[in-house]
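Morning!

As promised:
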Amino acid sequence: MTTLASLYGQTIFLLSALILFTSFVMLAQSRVTALVNLFALQGFLLAVTTALVAIVENSSHLFLSAALTLGLKAVLIPLLLHWLILRMGLHRTTDEVMRPLPLLLGAASLVVFSYYITLPVVQLSELETRNIIAASTASLLLGMLLMISHRQAISHVVGFMAMENALFFSALVATHGMPLVVELGIAFDVMVAAVIFGVFFFQIRESIDSLDVDRLSRLAEREEGL
Amino acid sequence: MAAWLINLLQVILFVATAPLLAGWIKILKCWSQNRKAPSIWQPYRDLAKLLRKETVVAENASWIFRAAPYVVFAVAVLAAAIVPLVAVPLPTDQMADVIVLVGLFGLARFFQALAGLDIGTAFGGMGASREMTVASLAEPAFLMVVFTLALSMSTTNLSVAIETLLHEPITVRPSFVFAALALGLVAIAETGRIPVDNPATHLELTMIHEAMVLEYSGHHLALIEWAAQIRMMIYATLLVNLFLPWGLADRWTVAALGWGTVAVAAKLAALAVVLVLAEAVLAKMRFFRVQHFLGFAYLLALLGMLTHVILEVGG
């Protein structure tokens, strides 16, 4: 039984490492459709991790949040984003990162940083999953880095959603999930956010003919020098 | 004494079966492209033919050009001596660990690049320059994989590490998953497979390894080709024996050694299938994209190390 339990624990560790890995791959991804697919994959991994923790801890409300994560973050929101991308004809757009390698190495140093800042928390915690707290904090920071480094509005939304994933993940590994009411509320918020973002996309595109948010920082409508 | 004998036998087996692996990969490659495959013994025939043929050396070749094939081959055999193929522990592991292995590869590459420059043809220089570019990016990633292993196993000694892995209960290590992926990418780059280099082409703009050895003929070429096959075998063996060590012999009985041989052969054959499938779906990438490929390998290895420190050791 102990070996089985330790295998469970190791699988949770492996899955959380994979979640961190998807955050890295998302950071280097330049195609928006692939980015959305990666986000769906991350949601799926997160749902599996939640279900595993639920089995180990034998807590029923975690099963519910696993199902919620699967339905919302692995299926519904990616589908919505794909539909938006198709509607706006963005499925061939690339969102090139200027210097992918320095960005990824910077991301790796963010992982070290989050390990450093979560050390005191980890030492206070008694849970078996306490080592994962640093990984979840790292994927939170990586989501933020995704929003900073990419220029397409869709990528920003994916980065935002990835941050939300990471927050849920931290709650899962640090305290074995938030109360169900809070989780339901957040899930609803994310849902609404996805819809509102959709509306915003259309607004942005109507005003600047593109979803490249760098153009929003320019004051004049015409290119300089024209 | 018996250990030394088995070690010697293992080196001979390593050197003798390296062309077999190359032949198997070639067969799989042909099948994946709907072509008629040559016999699995074809690499042996090629080597035998090259060994019989006259060796032509350019007029302005220096001793480096003549010595390089012997150095490259000798280094490959030396490297094969410290990688456990069918049995652990090896007595040679007392002398050299995995960092020495990286160094040996570096030595062979250095001489091969020098030989490529020696003749002074454009292709040789271009090939040497490209080889060194790829190597300078692949080596850090390889070393990072080595360090991840060393941290988990608290040793850089290959046989000790494999023996520890063999005797522990089944453990899922996230760091090993990343390290295995990184080593796989490094192996693809270092052995000149698609998408980094295409071993089957002599197209002047794309070749890396072939451009360097273009001037060689006869038994010089045979030695270099054989050394390349041994290097391929070493990388493949490292991948399967480090990350899937089950089946390796840890006793000096005939049955255990036999099982070890069968297990390693099966694992290598399966790895070749994976390699060929990957090559079938990938296209050769532009040379200037190789840095992204190897940067990704480095990142994977780095992530392996970080996940080891964060998840497996903890605060």
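Residues 2-313 of chain B form one domain.

Hope this helps with the figure draft.
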